[in-house]
Amino acid sequence: MAYVHRARNPSGLGPLLGWPVHVLVLALAVALAYGHTLDVPFYLDDFSSILENSLVYHWQGFAALRAYAPMRVLTYASFALNHRWGGFDPVGYHLVNLAIHFLAGVAVYGFTRGVLRTPHVEGSVSPSVRAGLPLFVALVFLLHPLQTGAVTYIVQRLASMAALFYVAALAAYLQARLAARARTRILGSAACALCAFLALFTKENAATLPGALLLLELVLVRPRRSDWPWLAGVLMGSAALVWLLTALSFGGDPFSLGAMRDLASQSRQISRGTYLATQMPVLWTYIRLFFWPVGLHLDRSVDLHHFGDATALWALAGHLALVSIAALAARPRPLVAFGVLFYYLAHSIESGIIPIPELAFEHRSYLPNLGLCLACGDLLRTGLPKPIGARHVVPLAALVPLLLGCATWRRNEQWRDPIAFWQDNVRRAPTKARAWGQLGKSLVLAGRPEDGLRALKES
């Protein structure tokens, strides 16, 4: 049986606090922070994935795309459409990326509105919080400079587009779960299934979606005991379907443990244990960049770690402590608990036990950052001491997105100048040969061959 939400009359909020105005604010925020990025050139994997990819500039059908990238068909199809409409002019690619980023922010806004209607949260929020918190969470998500790695970096439409469908699926699930009318439940369930399917064939990290639905139920909805049999069947069936579609897409046997092991690896040069140990400090880097976004750079230099290393062990201990605190906070602070646990869940594929050749990339935090945005929004409304909190929560809620937007605008200015961009990268990662090579290439193309050759010698 679905939990039935009874709408409350948000008296006194006024029309200016309505969702249409909020959506316009989100659109304006994206335009101001990213409007000057349309001339940003192609970088790194943009060349191999788009400019040099015959499947993009010579359409050969979805069958060819499935053979090339089975779980990324929709993203590469979107690149092909970009090329058909505008060739290799980066403007068209950036416009699509900005539209996807904006829609992802709208999905975050809708999801947060749904979260505030869940049984374990609804009674603890005032009408003003119900109106303002979704806008704050969506603005932080859209304006955080860490997100530029999935927006301004064209090829990482993979991350932003998958996140759009993923979060839309979560929002649709809540709409269906909390609806009083059968028609709304049916439409919401259908929308959830469609968005989940689209997310799964946009990027592989969407496979965590069944886990996110389970997390929603455990932390925020808390179903009655009588609901668990059918709910468990739905969630387990969803997880089984995700595995079945993934295995069949890669041509593997969905009933073979060996096939499962082979699919859960993109690199044979690093063991699962080493990769997982290496990701322990990497995850703290992502968390640090969320709270203090200084030192962003595209091509990061990461040392390999093992679980015998003190660095990996201390990092692991910190993660376990944070997860434990979040789990214990599930009853008094459900939004914080869900946000933290979702952050780790959303990172689990790319920063877990599936070895990937690239050890760290900032775009991998695009979807997980939703969890931290939600947790920080809740802490902002409840964590300040009274009466200071009541006086300053609104100015702080306005100041945070403003500062993040300014930082994003400045980061995007770096993206516009490849030479300055790569000079900053090699300053922060001086041992990264690929970054030196990209700097040398940029200098040569800018008519500075001598400087370019010096940089290339460092690569």
Automatic annotation (TrEMBL):
Top-level taxonomic group: Bacteria
Membrane-spanning intervals of the chain: 12-34, 91-111, 131-148, 154-174, 228-252, 273-292, 312-330, 335-356, 388-409
Record InterPro entries: O-mannosyl-transferase_TMTC
Keywords recorded for this protein, A-Z: Membrane, Repeat, TPR repeat, Transmembrane, Transmembrane helix
Entry keyword rRNA-binding: no
Keyword Nucleotide-binding: no
Matches recorded under PANTHER family: PROTEIN O-MANNOSYL-TRANSFERASE TMTC4, PTHR44227
Protein name as it appears in the record: Tetratricopeptide repeat protein
UniProt organism field: Eiseniibacteriota bacterium
Lineage: Bacteria, Candidatus Eiseniibacteriota
